[in-house]
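Progress narrative, work stream C.
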Amino acid sequence: DLLPEQSPELFLKWIFRFLYDIIATSTKYPLVSGVYRFATFVMNICLKLDYFKSNRATTGAEIEMMEIDINENEQIQAACGLVRRFAHEVLSRQKQYCDDLLVSCLQLIISLPSDCIDYDFAD
């Protein structure tokens, strides 16, 4: 609860790295509910920052002053793809889960931003 109340905008440049590490940890330890809870926490911060919004305002002045990285949109798209694939994995694996682990996975799925949801998922 500390990070969202402080300066979540400082977290912007680290979101992709955090997501990548969380997903790698989840692959290594799929039965640890804390990993899914941490992923949910990061997703909530992303929602608060509108991280996955494709139409985030970027002005020419911000680019000239190097306040916005030109590759930022590519990184956001990569993060969205990463989250989309992770959601597929979680949805496939959750059928075997129960109790706290299942709740953690469902909370993660519910916290996903609509920009990163693949509506064509069929299992």
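Work stream C, second folded protein:
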Amino acid sequence: PGIEVVACDVTDRDALTELVARHDITGVVHAAGVLDDGVIGTLTADRLRRVLAPKVDALRHLDELCPDARLFVTFSSSAGVFGNPGQGNYAAANAAVDAVIQNRHARGGAGIALAWGLWDRDAGMGGSVDRDRAARHGMTALTDEAGLALWDAALAQGRALVMPADLNERALPRTPLLAALRRDTATSRQRTEGAVGTWRLPGRSRERFVLDTVLDHIAQVLGHTDRAQIEAGRPFTHLGFDSLSAVELRNRLARTTGLSLPVTLTFDHPTPEVLARFLLTEATGAEDPEPATITTPTGTTDEPIAIVGMACRYPGGVGSPEELWRLVAEGRDGMSAFPLDRNWPEDLYDPDPDAVGHTYAREGGFLHGAGQFDADLFGISPREALAMDPQQRLLLETAWETFER
């Protein structure tokens, strides 16, 4: 018999029930996975649901609808065993998957959860930064050959949960998982006192030392061998940072300096140079004398105000104050047909005003070229630019043009 490929949303129980009823399913391999990483404080209900639904909801449906499947395998993750910084939702989803399989196993059904370690691939659940981070914590990325061999070995175990991974025992953390929650007061005090000694170095030496310290930690987080490979003026997003590596850098710097640092550290201070200046200010600001308050008398004046720069964007192809004046002077209409760069459906227009998902207007006040944005000019990565609100991009452009004029 040939292979039939069928698309089905397995989180939709009704759709899955209909699919299972049409086929004699004897084996199930559930390999769904979605990432939406972020520290705990940023995880909304929607972000939790997005990660949990394809893993937990889908697996529960498959478990209920395929009780007699002789092969029942689900791809879990070592994140559910060890926990990963910045992946609370993903770790919870995989821990729940493991629990579903253990319950199925206890009921006498066939089932195994494979809590995979990281694979040596840029696609899927891991990139180069993830591999370097995992290696520092004792986990080497799996090659395809090693992964397939572990698949065979795991299925032969007859257990409900197996973690196929390449672990370096010497690099594994030696402290219990919860030991990181307990702080040694004496150690913390010594670390802080050492940091204060650094802040008292002469001005230029102190600035260089702090920047070198920041670059050293960045190199370790990204897996580089030398801080010389890090450009101090380059944005963190261009250096290859994501939310997990940003949190790791923040934690390292907090331990080194003894300062209380926000989790948004690399977003608030987007380059190593800017971050180093911030750390220096935070550490030495309390020792600096407060500047004298200068009171300047204010009064009314009749002097004219000079407008030296303007920029704007308006419908009708208006991209400058001069073009706006021409539009008004010539009495032209600023309305236009739908732009072609919005990915709107071709049948968006419908003369019926009650048609759902359509518009009965053929024209509107649109800003053409809204997708044209020079991300490099503002030190923004292409990926970050795609995620930005178009209004934010337009504001950056017009603000730049205002000063440029």
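The radius of gyration is 29 Å. No further action is required on this item.
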